[in-house]
Design brief:
single chain, about 475 residues, mainly beta, Tachylectin-2, Chain A, Jelly Rolls, six-stranded mixed β-sheet, six-stranded antiparallel β-sheet
Amino acid sequence: MKTKQAVNPYMPSWEYVPDAEPHVVGDRVYVYGSHDIFNGLNFCLGDYVCWSAPVDDLGNWRYEGCIYKREQDPAAPRIRLTNGLAAPDMVQGPDGRFYLYYFMGGTKMISVAVCDEPAGKYEFYGYVKYSDGIAIGKKNEPFQFDPGIFMDDDGKLYLYTGFALAGNLILLDGSKPTEHGPMCFELDPSDMLTVLNGPSYIGVAGEKESIGTPYEGHSFLEASSMRKFNGTYYFIYSTMNSHELCYATSDSPVKGFQYGGILVSNGDVGFEGVPDVKHARCNTGNTHGSIIELNGKYFVFYHRHSNRKQSSRQAMAEEIRFEDGKFYQAEMTSCGLNGGPLEGKGSYPSYIACNLYGKKGTRFLSMIKHPKKGCPYLTQDGKDRESGPDQYIANMCDGALVGFKYFDLSETKEISVTVKGHAEGTLYVRTSENGEAIAEISISPSKELREFSSDIHVSGNKEALFFVFEGKGSFDFISFTLK
């Protein structure tokens, strides 16, 4: 039974868990992902944590704790900064135990940990290996990365992995990226480690091979994930564009995959009215995720970026349309897993924004923070933490726009914002980015949190809210309240 509304990001705003692999075990959804540190110098610097929610209450996420520490892997390099725990995936073995497959920088191998529970304390188990005992990645194969693990209905076990950076670049550990898209290994389910067949290539094109094919412009980069719906295999991956998840389909788990389309972009690129990354509706960066089905509905999990750089990533999810075997690109929203618009009453934190940009638009983020000037951005005060005050939008300046989707405003009469800063001007509230204002909120300077309000004139039951500031100075946008 649903107990509260679901919003994006669906985990607390101080939690930075990207690369989500959602899995249903019993009556709960468990999410396995990397673990970023707020304002971290690199990706994946935290140990693995897990969150879960009831399948019928996707607004009620529970912290399951730290499930695996980097130091538990015997091959863990001494230096963490460039050798973090990257995107994991989980599968339940024939013995009923739960196996976590992961990649750690600096090892070249795919490691495995095991636990008797889906979100208990995992213990190191071993490395995926050939029958001669040599770990995959140690025979001069292409770079092992972002493992996706999948057990078919017939009990066969498949591992998907790879990184297809274009050109003939050599990676930091001396490995070469794959030129032929993702690799597949069939593993022995009796020990969950030993390769029976592979590596082979499943037909999802790398950049060079994509030219002149439906994959062109959406070729494989990383983030392998496999799902099966209605007898068809769906391979989910991040493309060379990096900001989008796409999918390919086949009637076999090991070959013949044909390009299907875009699932989601963390800048809504490819969605209605957003032709390319230069016109993204928020700052973009890499993404990684997958899909689950619950009671006939489908949900795509992915991540967004915050703090003006790529290494403070947060978990996001959207319901996605699925008809006649085809997925249609999902839109980034604030209501994500809610099953419909958010209520047109109550207070909402500003960090649930799904669109955010300044006069100069957005950018594809790097590992170095982009300048603040003219750009509103998501951030938090202080250092990385496991509780405490939430995120907010900083630097709301002249021309800044922040958007929230969607709300039932059929009975909403008043809107107020809680802000602080040195700004003076008007905050226009609209239901479309360039539409007529439905409210005008006067903003004046305040060193402390202060509430400003206005009547609202709209009556739709599924409306977006866009806040656009015109004036001098800038302010921190903490929250807004609908009455």
